[in-house]
């Protein structure tokens, strides 16, 4: 009962989970391949699987295979769980857990880093000076001070982003389905989405991905954006309609875009594609724009986060084995 296979694993997963495992003595297997129909049988002889954001635990055939392989637990080493069918796993008596509180600070700080980079064109300046070009032409930026910043989603991460941005003396406004008293106590006012789009110089997305948030940033909503506004997304790529955001950039309807996630990232992110031809035309276009920064889903990636993720995940699986109470159950 103490065997765990990790799908979509990287060297840093192996390092931090092996370190955390000294307290638990699980048998760990690290597999670079993603969980899908072709790879599900790699879970044979294991009792628990640990997956990440681009693994597929939605397909009924995959869930059936996991059931037949006697998998007891699907452990997500992240917070989001849109890639797992919770109803289907429950019917097949497979427990699903995630890591609800590992380090919202890491994602919040990265979010603000994207804002600063785009606002002051640091990414372009870096390219210039690497090529021994020390001209300041085309590098005029903007202050964050006194700008209106719309935070969409005021959970743990949104709250941390607001706390950081308050230090810049920005005018912060917010939207969430459930308004938080903790946010209101910071002096933040809630508005509806239409008002957020219209009022904001910078918009940052911090909401979960589901059927209601799918492509919430689209042609219709982008028409409401200020002409030179900035859009940041460190949540899930599917929140943004890629075709529509490209049109908005080409038509100069928005000023800049910073994304740590991408609608079709599964084929590319967490992989080295340096010597490959990228056949995704939308991704190629976005990579070519000077007012766009794309990072490869790294907002979570700090030492502090990895330590918490590994310890919490193994501790949760240990609780399941011992039939102890686990607060991170998703499908009970």
Total beta-strand segments: 12
| Largest beta sheet: strand ordering | 8-7-6-9-10-11-12
- The run of helices and strands is EHEEHEHEHHEHEHEHEHEHEHEH
Strand content: 5-15%
Notes on the structure:
The chain is an alpha/beta fold and 332 residues long. 34% of the residues lie in helices and 14% in strands. It is built from twelve helices and twelve strands. It has helices at 11-20, 60-68, 86-91, 104-120, 122-130, 156-166, 181-184, 193-199, 219-222, 242-250, 281-288, 303-321, and strands spanning 3-6, 27-30, 48-51, 73-76, 95-97, 148-152, 171-175, 189-190, 202-205, 230-233, 256-259, 292-294. The strands form two sheets. It has a seven-stranded parallel sheet, with helices on both faces. A five-stranded parallel sheet has the order 2-1-3-4-5. The longest helix is centred in the last third of the chain and has 19 residues, at 303-321. The mean pLDDT is 95.
